[in-house]
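worker-03 picked up job from queue 'complexes'. Input manifest follows; two sequence lines, order preserved.
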Amino acid sequence: MTELDPVIHAAARLRISATLASLEEGDRITFPRLQELLDMTAGNLSTHLRKLEDAEYVVVEKTHKGRTPVTYVALTRRGRRAFEDYTDTLRSLLGDNA
Amino acid sequence: MTTHPSDRDDRRDSRPDDGDGDDKLTDPAAALALVQRQQAALERDQLGGIPVILLVWGVAWLVGFGALWSGYAGGNPWFQVPLTVAGIVFAVFLVAAMGISAWIGMRLNRGVRGPSNFSGAVYGIAWPIVGFGAWLMGVALARNGMDSELQSLFFPAIFALVAGVMYVMGAAIWRSLDQLVLGLIILVAGTVAPFFGAPTNNLVMAVLGGGAFLIAGLVMHINLQRGRRA
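worker-03 finished. Artifact:
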């Protein structure tokens, strides 16, 4: 019986992963835009991103555009694979139940 | 895009967090549905502007070329407008459509940096460059003796050719069947219209070209609302 990845298996982090996985591989998204797409508070998003970052599923990159700081978020290769494995597991679980 | 009803559903699924925010998902079906809903909502948010662009161009072609058709003698049998007025209407609608689509187009991939920016930027810049090139070619032909009746056949045709090729290219880049069908119809409109002669060519552009834009815009809008990939 396959285990569901506990890092991804929480609604907020699943939505974050699904959103980041929809970006083209290699693309990164700004923190405010990600927040807007997910409709989450900055604090809530930060908390969940930290957990994903700890698992090395996500890279959070802080840089500057001119003088204003910009934070970019992207799925790592490991994170993308974990998300795909997770959805594959879900599908096989559902297939088994059917 | 603002909130859709389904976005609120998503929020309901990501229940208010407790201390560590580990809101557990129990049911695999619910989890998979959450992924699909989230990705559909994302697609609506990111691509929702494209149907608007198509609808704007549909109206511009329908009204603009319709005005030209009504401006020339032997065109619209129901009513006539002075050619100067028709020309102004055509120009206003075309410039407005260019402005609106450029503004929406630039916002489509906002907040995202990376490889996809390159395709988007090249595609976006290609529009005005190729359009300007086509216009300049017409000017050169006019200077070399192309009369005004031939010009009224040539300019709509070359712009339709440009637009058709651009939509086919867009279809290739973003793997969009909708855009491919639209591009091919616009290509047909542009290449077939001159055979009808002036001013009927404008009617072909208005109905076939404008109609294709409007239908494509509606189809894509409905697909996005249903959460299917356009």
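worker-03 released lock.
Residues 1-21 of chain B have pLDDT under 50 and may be disordered.
DSSP finds eight helices and one strand in chain B.
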